[in-house]
Amino acid sequence: MATDQKPLVVLAGPIHPAGTELLKTEARVVISEDLSEDGMVAAARDAEAILFRIKPPCTERLMASCPKLKVVGRYGVGLDTVDLPAATRLGIAVVHAPGSNSDSVAEHAIMLMLCAIKHLIPMDRATRKGEWRGQRLRGIGELRGLTLGIIGVGNIGRRVAHLARGFGMRVLGYDPYVPPDELRRREAEPMSGLSTLLSQADIVTCHTPLTDETLHMINDKTIAQM
Amino acid sequence: MATDQKPLVVLAGPIHPAGTELLKTEARVVISEDLSEDGMVAAARDAEAILFRIKPPCTERLMASCPKLKVVGRYGVGLDTVDLPAATRLGIAVVHAPGSNSDSVAEHAIMLMLCAIKHLIPMDRATRKGEWRGQRLRGIGELRGLTLGIIGVGNIGRRVAHLARGFGMRVLGYDPYVPPDELRRREAEPMSGLSTLLSQADIVTCHTPLTDETLHMINDKTIAQM
Prior knowledge:
- The structure is a homodimer.
- Chain A is of the alpha/beta class.
- Chain A folds into two domains: 6-95, NAD(P)-binding Rossmann-like Domain (Rossmann fold, 3-Layer(aba) Sandwich), CATH 3.40.50; 102-224, Rossmann fold.
- Helix content of chain A is 37%, strand content 16%.
- Chain A contains ten helices and nine strands.
- In chain A, α8 (180-185) links the parallel β7 (170-174) and β8.
- In chain A, α5 (102-117) crosses α7.
- At the A-B interface, α5, α6 and α7 of A face α5, α6 and α7 of B.
């Protein structure tokens, strides 16, 4: 094998063609369509980098099976699919793309709030069936004037706060990693605890990473506080 | 019949109970469940006022059949269901509630834009069927960065403009009844004509009353200009 060859980058599933083209200027790029762990091990044996979307999970076994592996990338933000302690032990860098999907996710969260308060899905279904009874309009509301509780006011949460303020919502924020002054700059009233937020909010939206700390944070007890 | 009796107000279908209670402090209130024209004529023969939701249309015959009728109200904004020239001839005042539903309609318009660009209905249907193929994410976009064309920048249109600006959209406005400076105050770039707006906008939203001037304003020719 020639020593001046470009490094091998394996993609776990296709990404946007523009991204692939950019990578090709610096690397040999192989797109693996087999998203099982064994499939990735086979495809990435000589890889110096692997880029993951969601599947497969980036396990210790997978990384250890690729002796040349230097860096693991996530095409997105969350790192819950990557075994970070194992990557640290193996000396493999892990990179992701914070902020890359913040606008999309924030818009999505607002869409879900609008759809819930305006009964979009049942209304769409009734309309397609030709059901036009007046009853169907009962209980439909607006976001204006409601109180939104944002749990996790990072790249995504702050954008949700900005959009929600535009709708005339009161916005509360709870994030133990963001100081109160910064929460205010992010357009959210600082809440000292999750319970305080839950008891005041009409709508709650979560924008935290999935970690041991946040897993099952919303459960029967926290729901009962709403 | 006692001359000191409160005036009779007939409602074409029920309204919010709080509204009915308020009316009852000043009037005898009858709610007609029969929303045919003949039903309304029968119920409103002695009425001094009729409050319409959507049905029946407030025709000349209906108004002429109610000799005591002084005022017709619309529980909403649009007056297209009321024969205004006939009301004028008969000396009957027509009132409506401009602004009353502006927030709701503006929120609804933004919801429809979000649902269209994010394929909400097909995605919901696929998810309920358990279809999780990657293909389903193809072609999903965001509002940020798109250009919105608002036709009719009145009570509703200006609120749509404000919300859209919050999403980071460019907002164009066309309204021959609103001067350019006022359009700018309403957060829309003034467009001199409908064609100019249509050729530049990624999304077009109409917030005009239904009149002879606006009927079929969006047609095969205007759609072809988008």
